Structures are given as C-alpha cells and as structure tokens.
Amino acid sequence: MSKRKHLVAPSVLSADFAHLYDDIAMVNQSEADWFHVDIMDGVFVPNISFGFPVLASIAHYAKKPLDVHLMIVEPDRYIEQFQAIGADNITVHAEACTHLNRTVQSIQELGCTAGVAINPGTPVSHLYEVVEDVDLVLIMSVNPGFGGQNFIESTYRKIMELREMAAGRNDSLLIEVDGGVSSHNALALLKAGADILVAGNAVFSAKNPTQAIAELKKISPDLISV
Ligand code: DX5
Ligand code: ZN
C-alpha cells in the first residue's frame, strides 16, 4: 500500500469553455494539485479537444502544474511546443509512439517529466522496457476521447500489475488513473496503488466542484486500514 499522499488532477476537458477563466480560478483556489489537460487530434481518438491557443490561455492563468495528456499521433512533432507553452508533465500514448524510449527521453531533455499512457486494450506488459525510464504511467480507465464515460473495472488489476512490475526498478513511479474516476472508486484505486486521480465529470459536474476536489483529496487508504 502506498504511503505517499495522492494527487488530484481535475480534467479541464469537462470545464465550461465559455467560462474557462472561472473554472481555472476555481482549481487554483481548490485543494487540487495539477491541471490535467487533454489534447485530442481527431485521429488517435475520435474527438478533437483544443490546441495551442487555448492551452496557452490555461497556462497563463493556472497556478498549478500542467499535466498535458497527448492523445495525438506522432507526438514527437509537438512536444517542444508543449514544453514552451508551459507543460510540466507531458504524457504520450504508448500506442502512438514507434520509438517510445526516444520520445520519453526527448520530453525529459526538455526539462519536463515524462508520462506514458496505455489504453484499456493495451496490457501493462507493453511497458516492461520503459518502466525504469518514465516518471509516470497513465492507465486509461475508459477508452480515451470523451469525458463522462463509465469506469472499466480491470483498471484495478492493471494498477497492481504495474506497481509490481515497477517494484525495485522504479519505486518513485507515479501511477495516474484517468477516466470515470469519482468518490465511488477513488479509495479502491488508491488501495490498488494509484498516486494521481484525474477527474473530469466528477469535479466539473458536481454542484460544488471545490468540495468534490476536497473529497477526492481527503480519501485515504491508510485511515481505513488501521
Ligand atoms: C478521456 C480523457 C480524460 C477525461 C476524463 O479521454 O483523457 O482526462 O477528461 O473525464 P471523466 O473523469 O469525466 O471520465
Ligand atoms: Zn486525460
């Protein structure tokens, strides 16, 4: 069981884009740790989110680290631009990278932390050769492309498998879970070994988003196991 305090990263994809500043300010003032920002190209996933101008505006007002999740093909073409615009962590999809180790290295050479994401259909074993090199692994708990989808239960097993694979090889590896995360499954995810909870719908569709973030923060596997 992880003794590290987990992080909460609200996913901006579920924000109100007509009032984006207000939602950014809410996250700034909340207990959230990171901004999770989804970039979709309409090719790797069947949806298009937003690009550099919107991300630059978010970066301008965000007072917390930007966790950029690239759901795009050939991410190498753009990582420099994402770093320049203010990304702190850049996560690429394993399925989108022909030379995954090289992409991870390029991200780190730019001074960002590097994450690798895997789709629900991709086994954890696919990460065996990169697990020592990455800062973070993002386990998709829905098929990527949209907010508000139902959580896929096999995620728990994948987190445990990954934690076991990383043991002794990369003990500081951060495991992030993205998709369908809410106060209903957060405790079980933390118990399985997750470090970072991404939440879109569960935060931005809540009556009180600040409170929803606080609830995700206060969940603790340690408190219950006493
Ligand atoms: C899905 C995105 C997620 C999404 C999560 O492809 O990567 O970050 O915003 O949204 P919820 O929490 O609503 O499933
Ligand atoms: Zn995401």
**What does the main sheet amount to?**
8 strands, parallel
CATH class: Alpha Beta
Measured between the Cα atoms of the first and last residue, the distance is 12 Å
Number of helices: 9
Would you write up a description of this structure?
The chain is of the alpha/beta class. The protein has a single domain (7-219), classed as TIM Barrel. Helices cover 33% and strands 18% of the residues. The protein is built from 9 helices and 8 strands. It has helices at residues 20-29, 52-61, 79-85, 100-109, 155-166, 186-192, 201-204, 209-218, 221-225, and strands spanning 7-10, 35-40, 66-71, 89-93, 113-118, 136-140, 174-178, 196-199. It has an 8-stranded parallel beta sheet. Helix 4 (100-109) links the parallel strand 4 and strand 5. The longest helix is centred in the C-terminal third of the chain and has 12 residues, at 155-166. The radius of gyration is 16 Å and the shape is globular. It starts with 6 loop residues before the first strand and ends with a helix. The model has no long low-confidence stretch (mean pLDDT 96). Bound molecules: D-xylitol-5-phosphate and zinc ion (ZN). Zinc ion (ZN) binds at residues 11, 36, 38, 69, 178, 198. D-xylitol-5-phosphate is lined by residues 11, 13-14, 36, 38, 69, 142, 144-149, 178-181, 198-202.
Give the gist of this structure.
With 226 residues, the protein is of the alpha/beta class. The protein has one domain: Alpha-Beta Barrel (TIM Barrel), CATH 3.20.20.70. 33% of the residues lie in helices and 18% in strands.
